[in-house]
Amino acid sequence: MKILICDDHKIVRDGLRQILYQLQGVTNIGEAADGNEALTQLKSDVFDIILLDISLPGKSGLEVLQSVKEKWPSTNVLMLSMHPQEQYAIRALNLGASGYLTKDTASEELLIAVKKVSEGGKYISHSLAESLAIHLDKDIRRQKHELLSSREFDIMIKLANGKSLHEIGNELCISDKTVSTYRSRIMEKMGLSKNTELTKYCMEINLMGGSII
Predict the structure, then answer these.
(1) Do 112 and 168 lie in a common domain?
(2) Are residues 124 and 154 in the same domain?
(3) Are 199 and 208 in contact (CB under 8 A)?
(4) Same domain for 45 and 9?
(5) Looking at residue 83, what DSSP letter applies?
């Protein structure tokens, strides 16, 4: 089994590498510090599983996931996040992810998840599964935020959490002007005009507290 770890923090990559080598059958573990590096490696090598951080500089994890499933659909992707937020999990699973774990997951659960995904299954934690069940059990109409692209969704959450255009630009390695353009698109699609309205919307449908950091 060949695994690629994509995370912008070396200490996280080192920790995951140590855990993964406990798994029988793991022959090679590659590393990438961002989405572009991961996609470059996929062009020259074949990996069975990618452990993909949802929060990356440049391309977000969701954007990288989308590219991977379009170009290498047989590659299994296990998303890692700081947050158990079900909205991110739903979006990731809809884009083709094989699983979704939070970074505070115990090493035993990570190994179980990787094994299950390697066998063609899907994996989400028990606590997240309960949240998803509650979310999906509701009679939910198509909500406005579902019209947003992965990058727009990411920026919407950051704006709703009070981050400035400059702060968002620094986090995503794009210019303030580009962030402003994204903000305009978001407001148009959502039918809103102020950041306070965006925050209120996100609070009402329980999107707050799940911002990517």
Answers:
(1) no
(2) no
(3) yes
(4) yes
(5) -
